[in-house]
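A quick aside before the break. I want you to see a complete sequence-to-structure record at least once, exactly as it would be stored in a machine-readable document. Don't worry about memorizing anything.
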Amino acid sequence: MIKLSEQEKSKLSSYLANKRYPEGYLYAKQIVDSKGGDERVSSWLGKASDSNKGDNIIGEYVRATTKEAAFDEGKKVTDAQFQYASDFLAKEVMGGFIRDGGIKDIESIVRQDVQAAVKVLGLTPEGWAGTFGAVF
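That is the input. The structure line, written in tokens, reads:
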């Protein structure tokens, strides 16, 4: 776990309070990078920012593949539902960093990612494209 200073926790809290989730993810990524953290965590945080924004190729890919997987499961995921799930995940992940006083390992983050998708969207773990390629 990468320990967070009080100042870092405060800044992450500000991003959460202001619903600036993409920027919060990028700030956490900056912390990981500056402290020589796991490149997989850094990469996940960058892609989470892109996915939450949704206005770029990563965001479009994750949204489209999640909708397709939901369709294959006989469900429908709207853009609003996806955004709600993505925001829920951001609050869970970054809130956890603040509560725990540090940025967790990639396995914990991916597990939390999958659990949020299953809980909020009602998808199977395989239906959440945000963890594409991850083992869960």
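Two observations worth writing down. The first helix runs from residue 6 to 17. The beta strands are 2-3, 102-103. We'll return to this after the break.
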